[in-house]
Amino acid sequence: MKNIAISVIVPVYGVERYIERCVRSLFSQTMTEGVEFIFVNDCTKDRSIDLLTALISEYPQLSSQVKIIHHLRNRGLAVARQTGFDAARGEYILHLDSDDYFEHDMLEVMYEAALVNNSDVVVSDFFWSWEKKDKYQVCPLYDRKVAIINSIIAPWRYENKTIGPYVWNKLTKRSIYKKHNITSIEGINYGEDFIVTIQILYHAAVITKLNRAFMHYNQQNLGSYSHNKSASNTHQRLMATDTIANFLSQKTSVYKEELDERIFREKLIAIANCGTDNLHEYISMYPWLDYEKHKYLVPSYWRLPYKFALQGKIGMFIFLRNLILHIRKIYRFMYEQ
User: Are strands 170-173 and 121-129 parallel, antiparallel or unpaired?
Assistant: First the structure.
């Protein structure tokens, strides 16, 4: 292909249950001409790549538009996305996780909107998807850039009405990434999209919103980064927030309050999910944050446990934390049935 309109980047790791649905949603798009599909094998240990190769053979007319890039070792989601981007030649970039999938006309509709509006970014709504149901998520685009970015940093201030930090509901000009050297950071796989999206939106001149949902965000894959609350991932969340706080603080002070609130919440999320060996480390982080100022952000059932933690009463905190997490696990299981 000489003229490539869209590069779709798909990291692949541990998704043999879902990759067929993902790939067919791409190869069956109403727009495939001028589209390249880049799959990055992050040393998956299952049959995902075998299944992908078999699927490609079913669409011989697209074989010249498909690339599979193999990492020599597992390097994580952030590097997989970056590897795909470095190989991309399209005017626009769109990301898709290999356990998720697109509606059949997503590429065509979003690209047409980009051309009509000369958009730097085109944003859409999306679906939260389970096995037997979808939930429509509206992603409102605010008139002011400050509100757009603040609604991502601190969505609770906007009743969780935001276009979100996600890269998969945003068709973005590749030149925005290149001009401003926007890259994923190796080692930050949980929150890497937050880092990239905030920078893209900060630099974007024209952002277009489509009031349709195209992307299905899979809620069944419990092995995905979004479901993993390990100590490593909670630390990565903090690193992602710190990265954006440093980026924005060099530009302006208008995001400071929202960033402090996000850091406060991320610290408490880390305390709630980390191992006992890391508790003291997270409790001592960000000593300037005022619990009394921000405690309205804490669900009522967490306030007493957190006070125990911040007062150094670790035994009481761990007991209550385990009780709360167990109850929440039961609730989520019942809700998703």
Answer: antiparallel
Nearest to 55 by CA among 82, 31, 79, 28: 28
- Inter-CA distances, 125 with 43, 130, 281, 311, 323, Å: 32, 17, 38, 42, 35
Torsional sign, CA 325, 326, 329, 335: negative
Integer Cα distance of 269 and 263 in angstroms: 10
pLDDT tens, residue by residue, 13-29: 999 999 999 999 999 99
Tokens linked to 294: 């921000």
The predicted-structure confidence for 167-199, as pLDDT tens digits, reads as follows: 999 999 999 999 999 999 999 999 999 999 999
Six-digit token string for 290 = 């005022």
- CA-nearest of 10, 77, 25 to 216 is 25
Give dist(CA 317, CA 310) in Å, integer.
Answer: 9
| pTM tops 0.85, yes or no | yes
Alpha helices, DSSP H, located in the chain: 19-27, 48-57, 77-87, 106-117, 145-153, 174-179, 192-203, 231-249, 256-273, 279-284, 291-294, 300-310, 314-335
Backbone angles phi, psi at 191, to 5 degrees: 110, 5
- Determine how many CB atoms are found less than 10 A away from the CB of residue 62: 17
- The closest of 159, 169, 165 to 190, measured between CA atoms, is 165
Euclidean distance between CA atoms 311 and 190, whole angstroms: 29
Residue appearing with tokens 């074989």: 63
Whose CA is closest to 9, among 177, 236, 133? 177
Number of C-beta neighbours around residue 299 at 10 A: 9
Residue 209: DSSP 8-state = E
